[in-house]
Amino acid sequence: MADAASPALIVACPSCGTANRIPRDKLGTGKCGKCRQPLFQGHAVELTAATFDKHAATSDLPLLVDFWAEWCGPCRQMAPIFAAAAQQLEPQIRLGKLDTEAEPAVAARFAIRTIPSLVMLRKGRELARTGPLPLSALVQWARQAAR
What we know:
- This protein has 147 residues and is of the alpha/beta class.
- The protein has helices at 49-58, 73-89, 104-109, 135-145, and strands at residues 8-12, 19-23, 45-47, 63-68, 94-99, 117-122, 125-130.
- The protein has one domain (42-145): Glutaredoxin (3-Layer(aba) Sandwich), CATH 3.40.30.10.
């Protein structure tokens, strides 16, 4: 995240991608200044090539990305676990899903060879990656990786 002494964080809106400044002590609350949607919705953001860097590089929140595809059985099994993790990890960590079939260039940028692949990013830089995990292990791994 941003410098701990900083009074505000930049958070990308999960609905429109607009960068919003939010006071550190109000993290988890607030609405987007552009679209008026909540900045924290307790579920993963659907990422595209157009929105990826807004969440991965612009936002001060760490971003946990689930690289997946519709045809992938293990990805479908992972989906409810990832959704439950979003409820537990927000607002400290933003979770996002990127369909590797729809956005192959972004998947190639991160050398995704197997799916599902979970990648923790901060300011566009990869911090850690893993494969599918049970919910408790995923939450623990994500919190550790985001430090």
